[in-house]
Amino acid sequence: DSGVTQTPKHLITATGQRVTLRCSPRSGDLSVYWYQQSLDQGLQFLIQYYNGEERAKGNILERFSAQQFPDLHSELNLSSLELGDSALYFCASSGDSSNQPQHFGDGTRLSIL
Amino acid sequence: TQLLEQSPQFLSIQEGENLTVYCNSSSVFSSLQWYRQEPGEGPVLLVTVVTGGEVKKLKRLTFQFGDARKDSSLHITAAQPGDTGLYLCAGLWEYSGGGADGLTFGKGTHLIIQP
């Protein structure tokens, strides 16, 4: 058990819809990262938040956004969903400095019909 | 775009054999991590290497970081069926800019150990 909790585990929705994925980091971790894993692209970094503030952006689409709340949990919002957004979405958390290991949750499997 | 090449992509061997997985880039890493992922679960951290030339051992697994910090390898001795899984290398680039700490992952090595 990594200590990182993601909900829901599975999400099925239709094109054009909007969903919110939730992540609770490990106790004491200030950084939260979101990744997308698909069969063709592998694991890709989307965005990082540190102590409530956006810290870094990766390959995140404009239709996607995230936030980190005062209690350090984070949400990833995906809107105007397309078939190609079907993927596993992982959240990871780490401590307060670079090079600290990232601990991953078990992911949310998003299926767009 | 900085790439992290991992090879082989697929590997199926018999129990008891040895194997090596490689992770290569043309850019320098500030650190490199190896993860193992099983179906339905998130990646689980195996090791982090930071210093060029560093070697770390985890039971039958040996991890090596290249002297120039551009490559790494994972060697498994006497593989067992329980080693089956997806092995991922992931790096933090030395000059990622802006303090970005998102990992760049290789596409992984799907390893199957047959009994």
Q: Any overview of this molecule?
A:
The complex is a heterodimer of chains A (113) and B (115). Chain A has no helices and eleven strands. Chain A is an all-beta fold and 113 residues long. In chain A, the strands form two sheets. In chain A, strands 2, 4, 5, 6, 9, 10 and 11 form a seven-stranded mixed sheet that branches. Chain A has a four-stranded antiparallel sheet with strand order 1-3-8-7, with no helix packed on it. In chain A, β7 and β8 form a beta hairpin. Chain B is an all-beta fold. In chain B, a hairpin with a 5-residue loop joins β7 and β8. At the A-B interface, β4, β5, β6, β9 and β10 of A face β4, β5, β9 and β10 of B.
Helix/strand class of chain A: mainly beta
Number of strands of chain A: 11
* Structural Rg of chain B: 14 Å
In terms of quaternary structure, what is this?
heterodimer
Series of H and E elements of chain B: EEEEEEEEEEE
The beta-strand count of chain B equals 11
Q: Major beta sheet of chain A, specifics? A: 7 strands, mixed
Strand-pairing-aware structural class of chain B = mainly beta
Biggest interface: A-B, 28 and 27 residues
Question: Unreliable runs of chain A, pLDDT <50, ≥5 residues?
Answer: none
Beta percentage of chain A is: over 45%
Proportion in helices of chain A: under 10%
Strand content of chain B: over 45%
Counted by DSSP, the helix tally of chain A is: 0
Can you give the helix content of chain B as a percent range?
under 10%
The main pleated sheet of chain B reads as:
6 strands, mixed
Mean pLDDT of chain B: 91
Global geometry of chain B? globular
Low-pLDDT sequence parts of chain B: none
